[in-house]
């Protein structure tokens, strides 16, 4: 090659090199196969304690799956009731996170979610994963399964963490000269009388948000008889205008005789505040409240089964669902997270039942003892009864019942009206 | 004329320097141009990319706003009631129709909500029935998405205007029960999207901007005055509607029409594009290029002037040298060159001056030699003119001596006659060895008569003396030196022996005298003569009183036989031998 040709070649190369760099960039934004997949989720922060619910399992998962999956939690400070309403809003605006909790406490909403295929059926994943399946207690798996075998709620390993009983204030009981929690309902009412006579508000109650605390007392009392227990196991009862419904109404009316003035039209947080501030001696709630009780107060609190050795439990209420609209990889991550949660819960259970959990206190010991005392398990009314009754009728008519504006019979008729309305809407 | 004022070397130096410099400037200008162009492109891409991204983010905000507003509609109690099993009363339906008129979204020109019981809620004057809604096919506009807000650009068959417009549509679902969903459609007026571009009129914007929907329909376009988007760019933009990416999906993309930036709104799939015409880029580039050319012109000018000045430092002495050489006429040796450049050129000037000196000396020497030669030739001519007169006179003297019975005189005249005849040799330079020996023999006889019993001589010739040739008169000066210097310390009994033989096929003469041996210092000096240049030999004997004869012999021998001729003295205890060895055997005679 002559010098001229080389020179021309070099100059041309330099020239075109100069022209280069003018081409723009097109962002194809391909997903890096190794990129960490974010799993959006919403969890609540307890408004009274500031404690982040379920943070421990999220942290453990994110640590175990760092680089692969990351549960990206939006922590919101709202009550359980607000959270459940928010779930509905998020659903109709198509903004649900990939994993949702507390769904089973909203029966009609849950039903709608099933019918509209909004949730991923987890049964193929659980049934084909022996390790996962074996880590779930049979009763829990059954409770989470639909009649056709579908599983929309990834369960906890055990029901051990899903039981409700009575949290009671030892000091207030002592003030009234009571040293032990009543074992029968008769003793319970006597206890209430005695507390009240000593100027202590016996019960922390409320009427909004499915009237959770009073309804637990009332349904536990109803289940004290064989017939009552059978009624509580019934899904979507046909009517409440019967002896069971009337008994429940009577009990509710009676319970509110032993509560504070601010109980009517109030949400659970009012009742809870009354209890942890020492204004009320008893509140009905589940295991999960143990974590929420302030440390300086927890030593005053004991846990006991409802009178007649009853615990209320529906383990499916602790099942978490995966929303089906998400991309495959996100859903896979979410399912992996739910599996991790079951295993995590299994490990917790083993430590828990052997009382080997770090920082175990008297309250936890009480709970473990109650769980191990072969109690009668009463189903949670929230998963058995229609949502109109829970979300509207109870909140609207309990105050009227308590105030004597309606009779117990009328109360049950209102309950039956909710059944008709529910059936109409669900048709 | 410049080309006459500057020298050839300077001209070449200047032209090569200029060529190299222009090449360097050309290459650097390409580099600078490319760098500037890239930078300018980057600046423009950044500027308009930012602008386009801003527009895209504004579109995001618009979408979010429409999403929030429709979400509020969905969660409204009355709207939710309209989805329940129980029919709304007429009053409730009327109220609900008006509710949508007060939603918090600007530029809604029309709205239409259809519940799950075929009730249509619109502005009071719209008078749209459910059949109208069905016929409009708007129900099919919503995708399979559960309840996402959807934007679509379509012909308005719902409100019967027939114009193309942007619609916001969404399923309205029950919050509690699994009911058939309702649908809401908001028709947005043109200002809804135009607000994105602010209040700029077409003629004030310098880049083309526009919005394209997910199906590739150009919803809104604005161009600078006199600029239109060509089909290639349109196709490129439309192809991007298939992208699954969102946000800035194209930045700084060079097309025939200019530089294209595209932002894709994630939820609606709509594109916002900005096309920066090439004229904007070139407008800036041309200004820079103009400045660059000006600077380069100045640099070239400075380079030429500087090159001329610098090259002059070298070319001026070269020119001096060149002129001195050109003008040298071979006579004037006084025209010396004085160079003070502190470079090798000074050495060249100095060497030139030395060369002149050498040439001058050589010329003087040549002239002297020529003079001597001419004198010698003149003498020879004179001698050749008178040989007959000389011989006749010698014959007359010989006859007179014979008449008077003077034997010695007769003998001497006879020897002189022989000597002279051989010395002249009719002007020939080469003679036979026999003649040379006869000549030296005559000379020695004359010297014997002159110096009585000072010496005797022997001549031993071992070659055929009549067929061997030698430069004439090389032996006589040696014999003369032997008598003059060798026998200066004796008055009788001296011996001169001349041996002629062939050694290694070389004709060799050895002239021995038994007189006082030559001093070693003189012998060494004479022996070195054979190795110094002919021109320098005389410097060995600057007094010109000694060695003249020997120098003459050596000069003649070397001129005749070349540098190979051997001439040396050997000193013995009782005498000195001079050895002459010719480089050939003396057979040939080049003069014959």
Q: How would you describe what is shown here?
A:
The complex is a heterodimer of chains A (427) and B (592). Chain A is of the alpha/beta class. Chain A has two domains: 37-161 and 316-353, 3-Layer(aba) Sandwich (D-Maltodextrin-Binding Protein, domain 2); 163-313 and 365-426, D-Maltodextrin-Binding Protein, domain 2 (3-Layer(aba) Sandwich), CATH 3.40.190. Chain A has 19 helices and eleven strands. In chain A, helix 12 (243-255) packs across helix 19 (408-426). The radius of gyration of chain A is 27 Å and the shape is globular. Chain A starts with a helix and ends with a helix. Mean pLDDT of chain A is 89; it is low at 18-23. In chain B, strands 2-1-5-4-3 form a five-stranded antiparallel sheet. A five-stranded antiparallel sheet of chain B has the order 7-6-10-9-8, with helices on both faces. Helices cover 49% and strands 18% of the residues of chain B. Chain B starts with a helix and ends in an 11-residue tail after the last strand. Chain B is of the alpha+beta class. Among the domains of chain B are: 48-288, PAS domain (Beta-Lactamase), CATH 3.30.450.20; 452-581, 2-Layer Sandwich (Heat Shock Protein 90), CATH 3.30.565.10. Chain B has helices at residues 2-5, 8-75, 77-83, 90-99, 130-136, 190-194, 231-239, 278-327, 344-385, 387-403, 407-424, 433-450, 476-486, 520-529, 548-561; strands spanning 108-114, 120-122, 150-155, 164-172, 182-188, 208-212, 218-222, 247-254, 258-264, 271-277, 430-432, 455-461, 469-471, 494-503, 506-513, 566-572, 575-581. Chains A and B meet through helix 1, strand 1, helix 3, helix 4 and helix 19 of A and helix 2, strand 8 and strand 9 of B. Strand 1 (25-26) of chain A pairs antiparallel with strand 8 of chain B.
């Amino acid at each position: 090659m002559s010098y001229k040709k080389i020179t021309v070649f070099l100059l041309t190369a330099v020239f075109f090199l100069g022209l280069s760099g003018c081409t723009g960039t097109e962002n194809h934004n391909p997903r890096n196969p190794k990129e960490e997949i974010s799993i959006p989720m919403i969890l609540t922060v307890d408004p009274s304690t500031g404690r982040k619910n379920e943070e421990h399992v999220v942290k453990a998962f994110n640590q175990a799956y760092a680089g692969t999956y990351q549960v990206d939690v939006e922590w919101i400070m709202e009550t359980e009731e607000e959270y459940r309403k928010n779930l509905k809003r998020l659903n109709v605006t198509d903004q649900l996170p990939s994993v949702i909790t507390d769904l089973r406490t909203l029966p009609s909403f849950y039903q709608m979610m099933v019918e509209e295929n909004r949730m991923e059926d987890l049964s193929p994943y659980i049934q084909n994963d022996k390790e996962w399946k074996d880590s779930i207690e049979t009763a829990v798996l059954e409770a989470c399964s639909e009649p056709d075998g579908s599983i929309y709620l990834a369960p906890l390993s055990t029901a051990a963490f899903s039981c409700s009983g009575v949290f009671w204030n030892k000091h207030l009981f002592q003030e009234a000269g009571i040293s032990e929690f009543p074992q029968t309902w008769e003793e319970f009412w006597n206890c209430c009388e005695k507390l009240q006579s000593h100027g202590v508000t016996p019960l922390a109650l409320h009427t909004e948000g499915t009237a959770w605390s009073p309804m637990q007392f009332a349904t536990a009392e109803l289940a004290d008889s064989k017939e009552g227990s059978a009624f509580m196991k019934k899904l979507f009862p046909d009517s409440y205008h019967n002896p069971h419904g009337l008994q429940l109404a009577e009990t509710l009316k009676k319970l509110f005789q032993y509560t504070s003035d601010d109980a009517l039209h109030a949400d659970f947080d009012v009742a809870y505040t009354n209890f942890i501030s020492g204004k009320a001696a008893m509140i009905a709630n589940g295991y999960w409240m143990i974590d929420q009780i302030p440390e300086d107060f927890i030593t005053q609190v004991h846990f006991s089964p409802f009178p007649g050795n009853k615990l209320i439990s529906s383990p499916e209420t602790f099942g978490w669902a995966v929303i089906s609209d998400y991309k495959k990889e996100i859903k896979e991550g979410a399912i992996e997270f739910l599996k991790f949660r079951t295993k995590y819960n299994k490990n917790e259970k083993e430590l828990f039942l052997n009382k080997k959990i770090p920082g175990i206190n008297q309250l936890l010991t009480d709970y473990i003892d109650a769980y191990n005392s072969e109690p009668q398990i009463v189903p949670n009314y929230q998963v058995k009864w229609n949502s109109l009754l829970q979300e509207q009728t109870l909140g609207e008519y309990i105050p009227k019942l308590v105030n004597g504006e309606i009779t117990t019979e009328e109360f049950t008729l209102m309950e039956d009206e909710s059944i008709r309305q529910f059936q109409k809407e669900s048709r | 004329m410049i080309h006459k004022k500057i020298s050839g070397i300077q001209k070449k130096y200047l032209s090569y320097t200029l060529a190299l410099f222009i090449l360097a400037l050309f290459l650097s200008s390409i580099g600078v141009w490319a760098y500037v162009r890239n930078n300018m492109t980057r600046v423009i891409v950044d500027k308009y990319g930012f602008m386009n991204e801003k527009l895209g983010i504004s579109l995001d905000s618009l979408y979010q706003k429409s999403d929030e507003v429709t979400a509020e509609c969905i969660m409204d109690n009355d709207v939710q009631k309209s989805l329940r099993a129980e029919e709304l009363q007429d009053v409730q339906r009327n109220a609900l129709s008006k509710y949508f008129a007060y939603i918090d979204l600007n530029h809604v020109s029309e709205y239409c909500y259809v519940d799950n019981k075929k009730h249509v809620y619109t502005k009071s004057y719209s008078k749209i029935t459910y059949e109208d809604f069905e016929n409009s096919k708007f129900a099919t506009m919503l995708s399979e998405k559960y309840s996402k807000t959807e934007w679509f650009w379509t012909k308005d068959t719902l409100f019967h205007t027939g114009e193309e417009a942007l619609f916001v549509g969404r399923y309205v679902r029950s919050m509690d029960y699994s009911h058939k969903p309702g649908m809401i459609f908001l028709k947005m007026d043109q200002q809804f999207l135009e607000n994105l571009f602010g209040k700029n009129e077409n003629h004030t914007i310098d880049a083309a901007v526009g919005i394209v929907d997910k199906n590739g329909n150009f919803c809104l376009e604005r161009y600078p005055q006199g600029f239109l988007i060509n089909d290639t760019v349109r196709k490129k933009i439309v192809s991007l509607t298939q992208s699954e990416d969102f946000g800035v999906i194209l930045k700084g993309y060079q097309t025939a029409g200019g530089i294209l930036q595209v932002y894709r709104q994630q939820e609606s799939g709509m594109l916002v594009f900005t096309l920066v015409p090439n004229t904007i880029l070139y407008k800036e580039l041309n200004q820079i290029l103009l400045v660059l050319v000006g600077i380069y012109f100045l640099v070239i000018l400075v380079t030429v002037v500087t090159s001329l000045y610098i090259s002059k430092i070298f070319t001026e002495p070269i020119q001096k040298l060149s002129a001195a050489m050109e003008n040298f006429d071979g006579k004037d040796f006084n025209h010396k060159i004085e160079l003070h450049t502190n470079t090798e050129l000074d050495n060249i000037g100095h060497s030139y001056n030395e060369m002149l000196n050498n040439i001058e000396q050589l010329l003087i020497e040549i002239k002297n030699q020529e003079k001597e030669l001419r004198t010698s030739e003149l003498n020879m001519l004179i001698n050749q003119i008178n040989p007959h007169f000389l011989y006749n006179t010698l014959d007359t003297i010989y006859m007179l001596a014979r008449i008077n019975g003077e034997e010695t005189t007769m003998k001497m005249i006879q020897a002189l006659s022989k000597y002279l005849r051989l010395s002249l040799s009719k002007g020939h330079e080469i003679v036979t060895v026999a003649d040379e020996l006869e000549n030296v023999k005559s000379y020695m006889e004359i010297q014997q008569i002159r110096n009585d019993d000072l010496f005797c001589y022997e001549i031993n010739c071992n070659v055929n003396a009549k067929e061997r040739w030698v430069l004439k008169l090389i032996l006589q000066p040696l014999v003369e030196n032997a008598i003059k210097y060798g026998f200066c310390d004796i008055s009788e009994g001296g011996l001169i022996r001349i041996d002629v033989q062939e050694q290694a096929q070389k004709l060799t003469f050895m002239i021995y005298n038994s007189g006082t041996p030559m001093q070693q210092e003189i012998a060494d000096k004479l022996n070195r003569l054979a190795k110094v240049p002919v021109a320098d030999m005389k410097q060995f004997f600057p007094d010109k009183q000694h060695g003249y004869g020997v120098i003459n012999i050596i000069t003649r021998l070397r001129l005749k036989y070349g540098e190979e001729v051997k001439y040396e003295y050997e000193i013995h205890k009782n005498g000195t031998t001079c050895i002459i060895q010719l480089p050939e055997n003396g057979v040939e005679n080049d003069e014959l």
